[in-house]
Automatic annotation (TrEMBL):
Transmembrane segments: none annotated. It comes from Paracraurococcus ruber. Pfam families: DLH. This is Carboxymethylenebutenolidase. Coiled coil: none annotated.
Amino acid sequence: MPETMIAATDGSGSFGAYVAQPKDKPAGAGAPAARGAVVMIQEIFGVNATMRQLSDWVAELGFIAISPDLFWRQEKGVQLDPDAGQAQWDKAFKLMQGMDQDKAVEDLKATIAEARRMPGANGKVATMGFCLGGRLAYMTAARTDADANISYYGVGIEGLLGEVGAIKAPLILHIAEKDKFVPPEAQAKILEGVKGNPQVSAHVYPGVDHAFARMGGHAWDARAATIANGRTAELLARVLG
């Protein structure tokens, strides 16, 4: 599954990442322009079919997409299916609970650095995360030099609001109104906590649940996903070129 390997900055090894490349221009149209890159940050299910599909979608938008395996310190190559029964969910939660999120951010820093220098890249990099990845996208916004960050239904962001002042690049928060993992009181804290930082825009999507943008999933909502993805695409085009 991995198409590239990235060295961890702490010297503990290397981890794989799925890479999706934009299609080149037709023959005779000249050399393809350099592209911005998007680091795709996994849900609790690893770099599974959903994350590869989302990475392919970002490549179709014209960007290089790179999705690192953030569970590698516990188990390499995890690919779980949220629609395949409780055992998959149990393993996913165990891996999430076992993750050192500070080290995961360091691995994302290494991925961002790798993405800046990939062949065909223009040096500009955004991050885009979902669920656990949505939380990590907020953390990368506060702790890395990524040029933009996008969080889909990030969990536990209300506990990270002390870092909001460190966010210097654009960050979009996509929040599901009926998210069972982010209850109304948590949503209220997030909205209040980020409103003083003009780099952060938070959008609440009425009537939808966690994972509303996972195409084909049980919570998929075409309208909300299309609106959210439009906001995402606009930011990527504006910041990455």
